[in-house]
Specification:
Oligomer: heterodimer
Strand content of chain B: 5-15%
Helix content of chain A: over 70%
Number of domains of chain A: 2
Number of strands of chain B: 5
Order of helices and strands of chain B: HHHHEHHEHEHHHHHHEHEHH
Radius of gyration of chain B: 29 Å
Strand content of chain A: under 5%
Helix content of chain B: 40-55%
CATH class of one domain in chain B: Alpha Beta
Number of helices of chain A: 20
CATH topology of one domain in chain B: Rossmann fold
Distance between the termini of chain B: 96 Å
Chain lengths: ~450, ~400
């Protein structure tokens, strides 16, 4: 039941009015929890066992911490349990595959059987959210949530259950405590966010995917222009796909009087790689900063340790995205980029002399290059793509001009949004015109998409 | 960014406790700090109202205006182009057009449409030839089995009211459990958007709930079937993104030529007899009439058309009995007599001709041109056809 499909529309048309009717009563949270669990069970009812286990575990651990003090062993129980779940479901296959390669290279005639477990959607997201609650409580940043139903709703809230944003308890739990005031503005804001997200996903991401999938499925059959364009378009596809999901999630929550955090802030306008990570998947980047980078020592123990911590954080972040070496290399490439540019970005020359556009294009180019590893089916495919970009011919890429035009229009819009001409975009006729065009395009030309979100696989 | 290592800071908890209260107190204000978004697309209620009005106008008037813009030259012996068989919006438009010009609508599957003949050799053509004027409209749709036909008439044939209807029933759709859509294994059948999406359950139809709901919504919202019309007619049945992938350097707007394809478009089947094609005789596993989904749907179509004030005449077959062997001949004849009994019991005038000569069939159910001519002649000689369909003469 994805946000851009009819079953979700039907679900929301039932769940939302009841939510509004119950919002001032004690039944609000039980209803929200029921709706969220139903939403999740639509993917597979067995998933409920996992989410209930993770929720119960962290709720109990924190309850014990409150009684017996914030003991590190309790925190470890929570973290180890959550990571064990994640490892089993997400990395089981990856580990056994690599073990078997190792055994085979050592000529040991044994193969570890593959676990054959599929990854439940949203697992990485709610596990991280639940873990952050335990860690924050351990650190003394938040109070314990006494109501189990409220805590379970916090973990499973359906708008953000599948792919975030990974909310912090300090932002979401207080909102679940008070009776929400769903104003007219909340509904119209929610609708605006939802329509933009829907357009990003259905009209843009799924469109670009057609070309990207074709080229990346057999990169050896394409030459430099096609490979470069496919990589450029993937760069936007993944942005439209994920930020589109997030916009829809935030829009739905907003209509319910809940405010989820901003997860994307025009990342392809970043002027440095650090800036990029403060604009891309903000909820995950800040999670890794708060719960991995800083506990590792952050930047406090000298340059070497800073870079080591940065490298580890980025590689773990890569591994979080998927159980494959391509994701690990993607993380490592970003870490390398940070090593090379961190000090440069601090120089007055870079800050003051290099034109902003040049910085933006440089960051965009680097990030686009790194996406090759993220998108390629294997390391060898990634290598084929990189070598062919620089060595193959210049055959016509047969890339749809409309796809390029739409993408460039959005990029220009974003440039305008962060420039002195932003006021033009704020004019009423412009805003209305944009929505009319989006709705018209969606209504007349867009496919009846059922493509899942890319980040659901993470 | 000199932050304290908090995971290792168990000993400094009193400090943390002191600051916790103030942190928690600040939570309310933090909620308000959540930024809205990273664009200017933020509309007020009044602005959404404007969008709502524009969109409603488009929903309501768009397809109607389009009918004025797009040329639809359905001359004599028109039939829906083969490639537009699943363009139900066009079918609906054709229905309105045909109802205003023809006395009798000939409705059915590819046997009526004329799969193996040109448009001037179909059943309706020969009927018009004998009648001496354009009385019969070819409303056949290629591949429309009775379950889908019931959906087509229900949702897109609402304008068929108070007309003479020659409704064809092709027994081929009951020649196996697969044809009758009764097998459990999923397979691709024609016109899935027209079949009941949820109730009654069709065992072999296992499309996702999302697609089924989408089909239900499309039937109810004319605008959506119109957008399907655009895709089918101008973008080779693809959605715009897929079309641009096939035609990367073309302007999609130029593809909208406002010219509908000709009737003959896409029909390229061999116009030779089944013997020449080398089709062997078969022992078909006919389904029981009582449990048949197809027959049940056909019954509903008859009742629906009658309820709309139409004068319905049913033509059954003629099936190519020369192709049958073994027990299937007897089973077929038994089934025919049961069909006849139902039609008689429900006062539905009908004609159930004997099989045409074997060489006049192209396969199990499709006559060749001479076969249609013979069938048309036989129909005109049928008493109940004359008293039912030709009563206005």
């Amino acid at each position: 039941m994805l946000f851009h499909t009819w079953p979700f529309v039907l679900f929301f048309l039932i769940a939302y009015p009841i939510y509004l009717a119950l919002k001032g009563t004690r039944l609000r949270l039980p209803w929200l929890l029921t709706a969220s669990y139903f939403f999740y069970a639509c993917f597979n009812p067995l998933y409920l066992i996992l989410i209930a286990y993770s929720t119960l575990l962290d709720y109990t651990v924190v309850a014990i911490m409150e009684k017996r003090g914030r003991r590190k062993i309790l925190l470890l129980i929570s973290v180890v349990n959550n990571l064990a779940l994640l490892s089993l479901f997400k990395y089981g296959g990856f580990v056994t595959d690599n073990l078997n390669v190792l055994l085979s290279s050592l000529e040991i005639p044994y193969a570890v059987p593959a676990p054959g477990i599929f990854l439940p959607v949203g697992l990485s997201f709610y596990i991280f959210q639940s873990m952050s609650y335990t860690i924050d409580y351990y650190r003394g940043n938040i109070e314990r949530e006494k109501s189990f139903i409220r805590y379970a709703t916090f973990v499973s809230l359906f708008p953000r259950l599948l792919a975030g944003p990974i909310e912090r308890a300090r932002n979401l739990l207080p909102q679940l405590h008070k009776t929400p005031r769903v104003s007219k503005q909340d509904i119209t804001d929610g609708l605006s966010l939802f329509v933009v997200g829907f357009f990003k996903k259905v009209a843009l991401a799924d469109y670009l995917a057609l070309y990207v999938d074709k080229v990346y499925a057999a990169p050896e059959q394409f030459q430099s222009p096609a490979l470069m364009l496919a990589t450029f378009l993937f760069c936007w596809q993944i942005y439209f796909d994920f930020s589109g999901y997030t916009d829809m999630a935030r829009g739905i929550a907003r209509m319910m009087g809940l405010r989820l955090m901003l997860n994307f802030n025009n990342p392809y306008l970043a002027t440095g790689l650090g800036d990029f990570w403060s604009r891309w998947h903000i909820s995950l980047s800040s999670w890794f900063k708060d719960y991995v980078y800083i506990p590792l020592g952050g930047n406090r123990r000298g340059t070497f340790n800073t870079y080591k911590n940065m490298f580890l954080t980025m590689v773990i972040s890569g591994l979080w995205h998927g159980a494959a070496w391509t994701f690990i290399i993607w993380g490592a490439v970003h870490a390398l980029g940070r090593f090379l540019t961190r000090d440069l970005e601090r120089t007055s020359f870079y800050r003051d002399k290099v034109p902003k556009l040049a910085k933006q294009l440089f960051v965009f180019g680097f990030v686009t290059f790194a996406w090759i590893f993220f998108r390629a089916e294997s390391i060898s495919d990634a290598w084929v793509i990189i070598t062919r970009i620089f060595s193959s011919g210049l055959a016509n890429p047969y890339c749809p001009l409309l796809a390029l035009a739409l993408t460039l229009t959005v990029w220009l819009y974003q440039f305008a949004y962060e420039s002195r001409v932003k006021w033009v975009l704020e004019l009423r006729p412009v805003r209305i015109g944009i929505v009319v065009l989006m709705v018209l395009y969606l209504a007349i030309f867009a496919p009846s998409s059922e493509q899942p979100f890319i980040y659901l696989q993470f | 960014m000199q932050k304290k290592d908090i995971l290792d800071a168990g000993c400094s908890m009193p400090d943390a406790r002191r600051s916790r209260k103030s942190r928690i107190e600040n939570q309310e204000s933090r909620i308000e700090e959540v930024p809205y978004g990273s664009n200017c697309v933020r509309l007020s209620a009044r602005e959404w109202l404007i969008i709502g009005i524009v969109f409603s106008a488009l929903l309501y008037f768009g397809p109607t205006l389009w009918e004025r813009i797009e040329q639809f030259d359905a001359g004599p012996d028109y039939r829906l182009p083969y490639d537009l068989s699943s363009d139900y919006w066009l079918y609906s438009r054709y229905c309105r057009w045909a109802c205003s010009r023809y006395e009798t609508l000939v409705i059915g599957d590819s046997v009526v449409w004329g799969h193996f003949v040109s448009k001037d050799n179909t059943l309706s053509y020969h009927l018009n030839e004998i009648a001496g004027h354009n009385q019969f409209a070819n409303m056949g749709v290629d591949g429309i089995h009775p379950v889908a036909l019931a959906g087509l008439l229900k949702y897109y044939g609402r304008d068929i009211k108070g007309k003479n209807v020659l409704l064809h029933f092709n027994p081929l759709w009951m020649s196996s459990r697969k044809h009758d859509l009764q097998i459990d294994k999923e397979f691709h059948f024609n016109h899935p958007k027209l079949v009941p999406q949820f109730i009654p359950k069709i065992p072999c139809y296992k499309d996702s709930y999302s697609r089924r709901l989408s089909a239900v919504v499309e039937r109810c919202v004319t605008f959506l079937s119109w957008t399907s019309h655009l895709k089918i007619t101008y973008f080779e049945g693809m959605d715009l993104p897929t079309w641009t992938l096939e035609h990367p350097n073309e302007n999609p707007l130029k593809a909208i030529t406002l010219q509908l394809p000709a009737s003959e478009n896409g029909a390229q089947s061999e116009r030779i007899s089944w013997n020449e094609k080398g089709i062997a005789k078969q022992d078909l596993q006919w389904v029981e009439l009582e449990t048949s989904l197809q027959w049940n749907s056909f019954q509903r179509s008859v009742e629906m058309l009658k309820a709309r004030g139409n004068s319905v005449f049913v033509l059954v077959g003629p099936f190519n009995e020369h192709m049958l062997k073994g027990k299937s001949i007897d089973t077929y004849r038994k089934m025919k007599s049961e069909i006849e009994a139902w039609l008689r019991q429900n006062n539905v005038p009908y004609y159930m001709p004997e099989a045409l000569p074997g060489e006049l069939y192209s396969d199990a159910s499709h006559p060749l041109s001479e076969g249609y001519a013979m069938l048309a002649k036989a129909l005109f000689e049928n008493k109940s056809f004359r008293s039912g369909i030709l009563r206005s003469e």
